[in-house]
Amino acid sequence: MRATSLVRTAACAWLTVASMASVSFGADPGDSGSAGAERGLVVLCAKALVLPMEGEQVVDNAAIIVEDGKIVRVARRSEVDLEVLGETHEVLDRSGDWVAPGLIDLHSHVAGRSFFTNDLNDMVYLTNPGIRAFTSVVPGNSDFVVGKAAGVTSVLYIPGSGTNIGGHGVLLKTGFENYERMEIRNPGSLKLAQAGNPESYLSGVGRSFMNWNTRNTIERGIAYAKRWEAFSNGDGPRPKVDPMWEVFRDLYSKQTQLSAHTQIYQVVLRTVQMIKEDLGLDVYIDHGSFDGWRAAPFAAKAGVPAILGPRQISASINIEYRPGMFIVNDNDGAIFGMAAKYQEGGCTLIGFNTDAPVIGQEALPLQASMAVRYGFKNDAVDHVRGLTIIPAFAAGIHERLGSLEPGKDADFIVTSGDPTDPRTQVHLTFQEGERVYDAEVERRF
Questions:
Q1: What span, in angstroms and rounded, lies between the C-alpha atoms of 190 and 373?
Q2: Residue 347 to residue 139: CA distance in whole angstroms
């Protein structure tokens, strides 16, 4: 069944408002006919990290107003009438804490009972676009319980990297106990893996053949999508439904993207050129490690986001990968941060991931703090943006998640300070206005 995009909600109307000439967003709920609605929520905090794509990023001494699972308004506390709001809303006073959007991890293999059932690798063919990760999701699994305690509220659960196209993933919320509420969008992405692991397929596959075969598969998928488009427009017969190619209807219509497990300069460059520039599909770099940063200027020009991790540091080396080994040349011993190198190359759309369970889901904030430690500039709160609005934008769910803007889901965390600081504690995690983690009840860290 073809998935329906869930991101085209009424929240899109607020993206224009999000230019944020003022720090007060949205209408006062007292003026919006909220009488008779379920009891809302007001969270008072020392600092609200609003984090829209553009405009004011932070509101100090803030009040965040939530109704029916959505953000209604973020304003300075002095601009709201708490006495009036208290009659219809629960007022949660966290005056010493920060509030930030829930964290988003776009590379996760944990959503089931164990890594061996999560890391899906059906390696009969080198490209397997018909495989679906959502069938192995176990709501309330232990990895999600730990993740939400660290502030991770959304993940992209994807197949493994044993083949060039491993199948399509699903975007999930971590805090709910039934699948229907967990699902953000299905398909969440089509998983593409280039070089590295797929080169060991069967007796070994050359990179030239992988590029040709991947491109051939995607072109066939696009042709399938075009036949459906022609039918929808009354210009052709109804095609036969083929589960192998259904995901390409969403890719072609820009309702989902390719998430590209790609690393090393040559392969990252090929991702940008082949997928985005030649075939016209939306894609984002996933991992992007080793000397992949050398392709940053090309990614920036093409508007391709880079979601980096879990390896955040590298050395000044040239790397060649052959099945079973890395060939390393010209190492002069310099150590640097990959995110800083992408930033220097002109990339502004930089996010972070864990590849959980390679790195635990709870270590997602640490990826951003490591990036800053190794030179990533965060003058505009870019380190937290890389955990929230940037991955939301890369995944095409920024109209619903990733920032504290009116109309978006009330997925947010209450912390003792900067959510990327390893010393910070997550006190509360909310999803759609519901408390799904409370450290006073079930502290994990």
A1: 32
A2: 36
CA distance 107 to 287: 9
Q: How is residue 271 written in tokens?
A: 């991702």
Pick the CATH number of 1-101+403-445 from 3.30.70.980, 2.30.40.10, 2.120.10.30, 3.30.110.30: 2.30.40.10
The pLDDT tens digits for 75-131 are 999 999 999 999 999 999 999 999 999 999 999 999 976 655 556 788 889 999 999
* For range 3-31, the mean pLDDT: 36
CB atoms within 10 A of CB 316: 12
323 has a pLDDT exceeding 90: no
Hey, what CATH class is 103-401 in?
A: alpha beta
Q: How many CA atoms, within 13 angstroms, populate the side-chain half-sphere of residue 274?
A: 23
Query: Which of 172, 191, 185, 222 is closest to 122 using CA atoms?
Result: 191
Are 148 and 436 contacting, i.e. CB atoms less than 8 angstroms apart? Answer: yes
Indicate if the alpha-carbon torsion angle 336, 338, 340, 344 is positive or negative.
positive
